[in-house]
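LOG
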Amino acid sequence: MKCIKCVGEWIPTTLGPVTLDRCDLCGGIWFDGKELSRIIAHVRAGGAPPSVERTTPHDKDAAACPRCGTELECQPLLSIDDVHYDKCPQGHGVWLDGGELNKITADPKAAAEADFFTRR
């Protein structure tokens, strides 16, 4: 499947307890349903934090949900200035740019905020 932010391809990537769709170029990750919450819970329970960096810049800021085609809503993460998540307004999932998952799981306040606001 093509990346929603660049020309890369999504590859299945296992992080902790889930297998996610990760772009092979920009390092962005699509989380279906409650997959982000499952990774945050895994790290809180002492599991190894994920390490996914951006490898190349993505081409665009706005994107559509790969499940329903609705434009994703960009939401700032209040506890970390340079991190935001793109959320499907229909509840199908969440997009994080490459490197943002590392920042969220490394900060307990950010992890709690992301878990609360992206859980559906």
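LOG (cont.) second protein
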Amino acid sequence: MKLLLDTHVLLWTLLDQRRLSSETRTAIQSEESEIFVSVVSPWEFAIKRSLGKLETPVDLEPALEDQGFKLLPVQLRHIQGIRSMPRHHGDPFDRMLVAQAIADGLTLVTSDRTLRRYPVATLPAS
């Protein structure tokens, strides 16, 4: 299974796995799963950290490498996918995650129910 972690799911995976359902923990830890983290998630972490709204791992790159997660860059095909997306969600980071998941055939792991309104495969995080 190819999974794309929503930003909050990445944070929970790194800092507090008890917040994840057992099904989600199993899927993330499975050797058969390929786990992707969008570059927009560390970007969102940096913004929220600079505003004092979030505590995040200071050095995220080694944490991602330790977990074996793959960093997913933003490509033009992802940006183009946003053009045709309905505005179910106003958060630009979440909209990009949905566009990336759709374009690359990934299952989005999230607890955000609004994102399930998009035509994207999802795995409930909690």
